[in-house]
User: What shape does this take?
Amino acid sequence: QGTWPRQMLAPFSADFLIVAGGGGGGGGNCAASGHSGGGGGAGGFRSSFCTPTSATPLTINTTFPVTVGGGGAGANDTGHGQGTTGSNSVFNSITSNGGGGGGGSNGTRSGLPGGSGGGAGTSGAATASGGGGTACQGNGGGNSSPQGAGGGGGAACGGTSSTDFPTGPAGIGGAGSPNQITGSNVTYAGGGGGGHQGSNLPSPLQSGIPGGAGGGGKGGVPQMGTPPSERSGEAGTANTGGGGGGGGVGNPPGPGTSGGAGGSGTVIVRIPASANISEAISVTPGTNTFTTLA
Assistant: This one.
């Protein structure tokens, strides 16, 4: 967190990418029927590379606030509650909202709203709705089913909501959005996968319910065995705003499981070479990386 830059020599318009911290995944419960937590929603995604948004004009001799949002904590393995919503990211007057926490597997099954909404948790036959996303920043989280929790929503601007897997387990995290502000095609803000209950899944899914492209963490899938071993959700990837995966629980159940933490966000500002201000760019306090694109 800081200000950027200390002084500007000439007015110009800057491209930007602002991704907030992803939401944490919900926790899995060891109740009699096996209950699982929802995936965390991706951090809100705002970029001048995404229509209809355009580059932002910057005034000379001015400093601007910069905040990179941290990811939300995943629910612990004893409370079985909702994951924590991620923190906002800010550049100048532009704010991206933190991703919504995934729903728990106790009485707080609903996913939380955010930049992208958290997926809903499930308690056996008791299901719930995913949290809503913020307009022009992200998509809503998935609803839960008796088989598993919903995945977190992914970014706006080409991303998607959570989708159910064809074989019916927990929801896959929503896809994030690809962006070329760094000169390379990088995908940000994928939703976390929902936690699954039970372990009767084909081998490609036994490592976890997939998170969305763009840093979404996998939802927990219990390992085969008697009783099945439990598996917590995976964390979202740092600096992508990916949501954390929900905790999965076997049936018959074992210990409770935690949700994965959301990934931290990022703020990237791209200035035209004609501005010729590289020596005036700095972040105080903190550091920044300055790259010249071909």
In short: The mean pLDDT is 85. The chain has no helices and 14 strands.
